[in-house]
Amino acid sequence: VPATYISSLELTNFRSDDAGNFVCYAENIHGVASVTLHVQVEELTVYNTSVCCQKQNVSQECRHTCSVDVDIQAALGKPECVKDLDKLMFCATDGRDHRKCCKSRGVPKSCLKWCVGRPVFSAPMCVLIAANDIVSCFEEGKAVIPGPPENLRVAQLSPRVIQVKWDPPLQNPQFVEWYRVIWKREGSDSRTTNQTTKAVLQVTDLTPGITYQLFVKAGNHYGVSDKTKPVKFTASDDSTFLKHSDAAADIAVKVVSSVVAVAFVILLTAGGVYVLKRNKRQTSTGVSFENPTFLKDSISLQNTIPPTTEAGVDKIGELGDGQLDSSESQVNNTRAISNLYEEPKHI
């Protein structure tokens, strides 16, 4: 007769250095079987839910259940706290959706709203038939389910396309396996969903002039976070978007033109200063010496200009014997007598 045997092993005082692979090995007369389980130790994160309970206006006689984490078991033991159970359950979820775990534990559909922090129709009934299982899912989920994404923002890329960006969740960001982006027309129950592994997504095929609501969730195979606070946006039509785009382009052109004009003025100023300094050096007349005390009176000396070459033809040419052409004349040139410090300079 087939039979099923369930065995369990409880490890106490488990530490981080105990993490690793554990092998379960079974053998009987019919054969052997084994399975390997990898165990990883994560640091326990404690969340202070007292602020949440204060915002939810939990009564003073039940406020002690929110000192560090929500102690649902303590609240269940006090009849005066039954009226606050919806609020306590909301804080106990800590921004996560635990319905997957609750369903696996057989929590009735009428009580599943507590698993995501929403009010139920009959709190006393859910306390009796599902409270313990719901609390167990809360404890399991806090260690592995990510919280909601942060800083959700929307930017329009073109008349029918927007880009959605967000930051990783504060709770368990290392366990995020995917993000789920959900949007719908304002006032409509029809939703569109897209899933991505990155913290950015482009939403296309929007209708210009229509207002949309959009929110994001983070999740993994253990469960999903609560949704972010929805953002509203209106898709701009072609003319409006192009008008804004043209305005931005005009501003950019004006900025670039201003920069070019300033650079041109600077170059002109620098060039003008350079030319003035150069002309000032070159426009001085007469004889110039570095030491004026050696300037002598000019003496007229006869200086025969040597034959010059023009276009590769010697000007001595026709008369030969080194004599000058009758058309050429001797020129008297005035020059300064050389001194000990520099060579003569022709004027």
Automatic annotation (TrEMBL):
Domain of life: Eukaryota
Membrane-traversing stretches: 255-276
SMART domains: FN3
Tagged with keyword Hydrolase: no
Keywords annotated in UniProt: Membrane, Repeat, Transmembrane, Transmembrane helix
SUPFAM superfamilies (UniProt xref): Fibronectin type III, Immunoglobulin
Domain Fibronectin type-III stretches: 148-238
PANTHER family: IG-LIKE AND FIBRONECTIN TYPE-III DOMAIN-CONTAINING PROTEIN C25G4.10, TITIN
Protein name: Ig-like and fibronectin type-III domain-containing protein 1
